[in-house]
Amino acid sequence: MPHITTFPAATLEQLHAFHTPLHVNAVLKWCGKIERSMDELDRIATDPRATAATRRDTLLQYSSLDIDGDTTIMRYTREAALHAAGAACAAVDAVMTGACANAFCAVRPPGHHAEPHKAMGFCFFNNIGVAAMHAIAGHGVQRVAIVDFDVHHGNGTDTKARTPDMAHRLLYISTHQKPPCFPNSGHAIRNSSNVCNVEMDAATSSSAFRSKFRTEVEPTLRAFAPNLLLISAGFDAHRDDPMANVNLMADDFYWVTCRLVRIASAVCQGRIVSVLEGGTSIV
To answer: Where do the Histone deacetylase domain residues begin and end (predicted)?
Structure first.
């Protein structure tokens, strides 16, 4: 199994297929400001006239920029965010050209909270959304499905799926802990033919999760019959993850992945790209 560690950054064209140019430009502009500030800090660090206090004050003032309480731009955010989205697009290229049967992208930062017009929830660019648009625009894929089993609703991906031009091209299915769990969206109201939100109560067990997946997710996915399956693979529904309160175990993530592989084998020649989303420290 090939393990690829170098890949191109996402292009502006790829980013603009999902995000507004205003959002992309804003993120890159903010990143540039922090990068220039840190370059100046490097200069100060070698200046014999600079005091320790000068260096400390410069670092505190210019080393980061908070977009919101969760989303902070730092020195290498641009590089990481562009390559996270680029990795997802490269994985789509590899799967659609037959270079590999499927792919998993172990990337940071995550992406599914990033809206077309804004960053939020640790996410700057919507990696899996950018990859979906790349599959449609770059490879002519007619139907792309995204299944998101992160414990938090992927509000950014949901928003894009609801745009009129995606009605028959992009299916979004999310299993997540119901509000008031962050980001307080994803209500299980089927008011869109191509968005299926499956809410879970706090303390949902493995058996309850599997039942919902079999009865709600699988029939919807099979009926859509995608040509490519993308997975927003968040592992924060694990019972030991501190970011929410769902009681899944490692075996549940194996189980759900096996179910998705089986469906992909039946409807889209096994073509799957999985992209890492949430999952914090489990002690």
So the answer is: 5-279
